[in-house]
Amino acid sequence: MSGLVLKLAPKERLLINGAVIENGDRRSRLSIMTPGANILRLRDAIHPEEVTTPVRRVCYVAQLVLSGDATPEDARFQLLRGIEQLSQVLTDHDSRSLLNAASAAVLDGQFYQALKAMRGLLPREERLLAAARA
């Protein structure tokens, strides 16, 4: 069996190709067999008022593609430009690996994988911003 397997908590919501799906009262497991389905766990979603940092902005653009609120064609340039700008600041090996993975995913049209890679930068960005405030 191949495809994406989602393990859902009770009452957990997710967005699949623009439709909000809510799990029932028990934990469950879904297998998504359709390649290219746009899926976003709503607990992981970044809300517009939370888009306050450079990494969050790039994540949000990828999220807009997954939610169907932006076309891949419209978002591709914004994502690649944002990743390029971040790569000029985040120069450590781990950040570079995540940025390269995100860039490759965008070029392949794999926006969930791009979002996943970019989300890996959120803790690092938070630490850098906290250190700058201190």
Description:
This protein has 2 domains: 4-43; 47-133. It is of the alpha+beta class. It has helices at 54-67, 72-87, 93-107, 111-119, 122-133; strands at 4-8, 13-16, 19-22, 28-32, 39-41. α1 (54-67) packs antiparallel against α2, α1 (54-67) packs antiparallel against α4 (111-119) and α2 (72-87) runs antiparallel to α3. The chain contains 5 helices and 5 strands.
Give the helix proportion (percent range): 40-55%
Order of helices and strands: EEEEEHHHHH
Most strands sheet: 3 strands, antiparallel
Give the count of helical stretches: 5
* Shape estimate: globular
How many domains make up the coordinates?
Answer: 2
Secondary structure class reads: alpha+beta
Strand order, main sheet: write it out: 3-2-5
Computed Rg: 16 Å
Low-pLDDT sequence parts: none
- Mean of residue pLDDT? 92
Share of residues in strands: 15-25%
DSSP strand tally: 5
Taking the alpha carbons of the first and last residues, their distance comes to 50 Å
Task: Detail the topology: elements first, then pairings.
Layout: E1 4-8, E2 13-16, E3 19-22, E4 28-32, E5 39-41, H1 54-67, H2 72-87, H3 93-107, H4 111-119, H5 122-133
Antiparallel strand pairs: 1-4, 2-3, 2-5
List its traits.
134 residues; 2 domains; two-stranded antiparallel sheet; alpha+beta; single chain
Summarize the model shown.
By secondary structure, this protein is α+β, with helices and mostly antiparallel strands. The protein has helices at 54-67, 72-87, 93-107, 111-119, 122-133, and strands at residues 4-8, 13-16, 19-22, 28-32, 39-41.
